Amino acid sequence: MSADPFGTAALRSSTLDGWVASPTRLAEDAAAEADLVTVGYRDRLLTELAANAADAAAAAGVVGELSIWVDGDELHVANTGEPLTVEGVRSLAALRVSAKTPTGGQIGRFGVGFTATATVADRVEVRSRTGSIVFDRAETVEAVREAGLSVDTVPVLRLVWPSKVEPAEGFDTEVVLSLREPSGPLIEAMLAQAPDLVVELAALQRITVGGVEIEAERSAGPGVADDEASSAIVTVSVSGAGSSSTQRWLEVTRGGTRWLVDADGGRTPDHDVLRAPTPTDIELSLPCRCITDLALTPDRRHLHPRAEIRYAAAGYVDLLLLLDPVRRLQLVPELHLARNRDDVRLIEAVREQLRDTAWLPGADGEALLPSRSVVLIGLTDRLAEILAEHFADLVHPDISLAQHLPTMGRLGVEELGLAALAERLGGLQHEPSWWHDLYEALAPLVSTGREVEELGALPIPRSDGRMSVGVRGLFVSDRIATPMRWIPTVHTDARHSLLERLGVQELSVTDALADPALRVLIEDIDPEGAGDDGLAAEICAVLRADPDAAVPTWLATLPLLDTDGELRPADELLLPDSPLLSVLVDDHPFGVVDDEVVSECGAGELRRLGVGWGFLTVDDELPVAPDHDLPDEEDWWDTLPDAPERLTAVRDLDLIDDRSWSEALTMMATDEDIAPLLADRDGYTSWWLRRHAEVDGLLLGEYRAPSDEILAGIIDPLDHPHADALVGALARLEPDTAVDADLLLTRLGDPERDISAGAAVMVHAAVVAACRRGVIDPADVEVPERVRTIAGIVTERAVVVDQPWFLQAVPDLEAVLAGPTITPADAEVLATLLDLPLGSEEYTATVRDPGDTATWAHPEAVRFGAERGVEVPRGQVRLHDELWIGVRDGDSHSEVRVRWWVEDGVTHLERRAAPTS
Known about the structure:
By secondary structure, the chain is α+β, with helices and mostly antiparallel strands.
């Protein structure tokens, strides 16, 4: 290879000759280079070198690679592709002269881009496989002086010298810059610019900066409908320094313009610049990146005056068509955001295409022309699915939001209000379930009275098969599935809460059954007629819809056919095979419902109407008088202190055959509605059963529950499988009436019964307590012939002990207690009930010896109080070695040794014997 393959000596000589001939030209060259360095290419070093690398790779038809590294104070930039040529060297050593042709996709064509190297270095070496050259400011100064010129400033890139250094291995060309300043900020800036450059410069696939590799991989993108456009996915990977990142771009190319957005839906930058293909100074507000081949000014910062930026709008719509609905609308550029005149012209061109092209996503998935589209604010996916077959002009639900309305409105899209929607729905024929789905989907759009008013003409299917326009006069029921001749209702399959919000009145089963129109229909039935024209079956269908609905009492007057073919009120009928029939007296007044009526209406629904199966009940929420036609109701009412808050009672108890009470009680105890009444002692049902129901010759009130062990031996247990469930109708320890007290006291005096003293005391206490509470008047209690003493025996002669110390003097065979604790008041009440004397009245007792005087603080007094669990009364205490009292009972007299006694307020105590040692 020649020592000077590019003829640099001739180039230097020619340039120096020109400067010598015209020193002004030297000054002009220096000034021109200075302008380019300080203004035109002040921040474009990597951009221009990368553009040169891309051109070289394209010219050579190879994969473009660019590598940058620092060695000392030298910055190395090496690339693959076409090596340095003679024409290239001449272009580098000249101002505004390029060896590149403006065809074939070449980027640089003004011959000034390489000037960017002078922004950071005074010595620039270009090493290539075909030869190497050097530009050096110091050598240029020396050459100028040797030529006899004296100047302060010289250009760096005008005089060129040959070099023998070859490029780095694996590269075709290498630019070496001797940096004037530290390389750190420069490398950092290059790392930031490289990811964009590999996208902008399609011929450049990889850039390596200081060990960080930035690579662009292009793959086929989604299909584009127009053959004149194409798409690609550009994946930019950055790896090195222990980290990595990836960004994917969706790119659409049409003509000489490429439009790009983040392929993964990343945030659109607030602003960008036009790229041709590298960045210019023309700011753009469009939300997509624009890379175009429009002509630029020599500094590559502005459009050439003859360039028309409107042409760059080509392909924008193609890009939007590849995106989801929301993103399409987000990428519509807005004129009020424009940053300059070029931006305005480009936005106007893009918006013109958007107005005249079908690209707006429709509800049915097809692209719509904005000027022929309508938007329903708040449209959901479900509502769009329902309306799609009838509304081909409806835009996609994802963009049917108020925030998008201004954008679409400026493109010609009209808003579809709810009133217009309701009008367009008129005349559609669909199943009621379709309308329900429509209402379900419409509901989220109705939040204020304004929307309710707009939907005033919404079509609504009725249960009778007709359609109503609007909600006036309509009812809805979520349970009633059958039409009701007395009330117009919305079809069950169409019922939705939206209709209620629009004004349709909600109708419960309870309301439907209580409707006055139904009562009129029932009253108009001819009792002498052959039937009810299906009204009973219709009513029972309504009843079936809600097993818990309240049934008005007057529905029990609904005439039904009985087995004799006659119409009778429902509450005068029993169902066939009713178990109640087996326990009623033979001459009961009930009829039996016809089998066909049972089949049509249902046994359960007929029972709710009032037809009997088991025992029927009377229910009254606020009873005010005994006017419910219950047997002996007035007598029960008189036992109550106040009117009950609610009355629930079994009716027709007086129609039970006396021989069937055991079966009847089983029916009631196993009925979940009646069973609670049997535990309510104060309720009518338990009250009546205690007094009138007989089992084995005894009233229920004369039995106890088997689980009631307190009354064991006193009251016999009821022998019945559900006896414990009848507790409210059975006897208990606490008497409710004088009759109950008579029973308890009489049974205590029965010598045939084995009753403990403790049980007798508990019964006495319960009867006395009832008397003292006023539940029982002692005068109403029959005096028993015999009483039971604390010895557990029955006697006719006894006394009621009214003072606790008398228990030491009265024999157990005669002593009767009014309770576990002896109090004079209780003893007096029991003495009256049993017609017995009090112990203190029947016996006279006198302390024999005076004893020794002491006080309550004496140890014997303290011990006595502790043993009895009482506080010794304050007062005099007398102590005795042996305490004897004389007891007189009529003519008989005896002496009794006692432990303690109270006489005239003085407590006498017997000393405790001293313990023996």
